[in-house]
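Supplementary Note 3. Input sequence used for the single-chain structure prediction.
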Amino acid sequence: MARLTTGGMVRPAMLLAALLCMRLVPVSAAENIVAGLNDLVILDPGKHERGLPAVELTPRKNAEGVEEGLAIDIPPKVHVHRYYYSGDKIYQGPIIQGGPTVVVANHPQTGERMYVDVVLPAGAPRIAYTRHGISYIYSDQRVEVTFRHFPFDPTVAVVKHHHGKGWGRKIDDARQHLGQHVKEGLENAPLFQSVKEATGETSDFLHGVKVSLGDLSTQSVDGLKTLTNMVPGITYLKSLAEQEPEKDYANSIREAGIKKERTETPFLPTNR
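The predicted structure, written as discrete structure tokens, is reproduced below.
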């Protein structure tokens, strides 16, 4: 990634790119990153000591009750989304071991309880709610559970696996990362540090002056002018129009002094 600073100065092109990127809108502008406390309840059958998907072997019988070998089963975990659907949002989910999972949620349109079989990857996905469904968003893939609305059959849910997290969320992540990078670059720039130190010193000085003089609104105009002249940096920020009368006044005093010295100096004639 290109550097944002060159010799302590922020590159204008990179700063402009950062500002433009910050204005981009993610896939769902209504998705608010929230804490997600108690939104997801995970029920684990507890068949494996490390929490991995368990494998069960059970005898398999035919219609006459005669055993015909073993049946292999993997008991699924259950993900209960008890606050779905309560609005568009996105939150950080817990670390999950993945495997066969039953996603349980109410249909956002009919309110009917839905049980959807999915296979989730292991990891710590972010979980997004929209009025269309639930998405498990990983760093390199995502699993979407989409609920159908009328006029389609609302009793059917569609499960899709996609590569990547989606271009909108990638842009949003890049915007946040670039914004943080620009902020760090600005804070580390020498000019920013100098302004920050000067601002802190001036703030402390003004606070001390306010405490010693009381309410500044009771001071006269001349008093306020004197006070502002005491603040570091204020004198140097005056405009040329404000400085010109002061220069003329100083020059007139200097010329009057020179004229007075000339008139008081005695004239001594010489023999030449």
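Residues 4 and 10 are 6 Å apart (CA to CA). The radius of gyration is 37 Å.
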